[in-house]
Amino acid sequence: MAARARVPILLLTGFLGSGKTTVLARWLKTPEFSGAMTIVNELGEVGLDDRLVQTSNDAPILLENGCACCAASEDLAATLERLFWDRLHRKIPRFEWVLIETTGIAEPQAIRAALARNDIVSERYEIAGTLTVFDARRGADLAALHPECEAQVRDADAIALSMTDLADSAEEAAARATLARLAPHAPVFECVRGALSPATALGALRGERVACGLDHQHTDACGHDHAHRSHNHLADVSTSFLPLGGRVSPEALEAATDAAFRAFGPQLLRIKGAARFADGDAVEIVQANPGAPLERTPYVPPEGAEPPRTGLTIIARGAPASDVALAITSLLRAFPAPADANSVRVCP
What we know:
This protein is of the alpha/beta class. The chain folds into two domains: 7-204, Rossmann fold; 237-333, CobW-like, C-terminal domain (Hypothetical Protein Yjia, Chain: A,domain 2). The protein is 30% helix and 22% strand. The chain has ten helices and 13 strands. α5 crosses α6. The longest helix has 16 residues, at 73-88. It starts with 6 loop residues before the first strand and ends in a 15-residue tail after the last helix.
């Protein structure tokens, strides 16, 4: 009897702010992933990344406020099981790929192990590979600070080196040295603004290390397995959502987030959200990173979709994210109000 074909799953991982969503959004506009089923896993009570990708299939599925390698692992397995039955009974269009964008602090091997515990998922799906997006600017420091970032590199079948257009030569050299040390097995592709062709990535993922069982464990050059180190790795991670009402001054928001990064240091992992600015009308996606200008991207909603709720999702480790939110609130209130008299800088 011929072996039953299984649906391939591609895990797209990388630490917070590395550029995973940008890669995914570009991929979903290519023929290779036309009609792919997309699952986006986010930490925090207000999801955003699922709104930034558009598919030719149904809207991306959002798994929010939990990590697929631990708290949300059952949700992910149940989602894949439901998708299989819906596909079989033609309740949804047939899909040939599943693309999973993990949270920025997920451990890929733990996701494999979690999915392997579900009989339907392990029988009907297979991992085609793990692509890790690695920040050329801050990757070396992040891998040294956060075990999850290191695990994402060790578990990679291929690596997309992002932000090379923004990194200086010393930062990029440190990033490449980190990759060579942690993942000598994985090919590295430069990826500027998410530009990595699916053909290139899939070509790298067709080696002997991929298309393996869901519970397959990667082994480094010394023969050491890198299984999930703990199901409680998020115990010291917290999230908070800071609503922004009306319009906000871009200068004030940049100054406030920059001050927060300086005050909380490596404890502050991410600031990302949506805002209406005093110098424009449309909702914009914003992301703040330490020592860098505030990133602003116009949000173009799919037809009929509502714009995202304006506000900032804050993720912190070792310090309450709510403390960061309070600090940013105080800093924003210290700035003069925008010229628009109807603007509200920050919600209480």
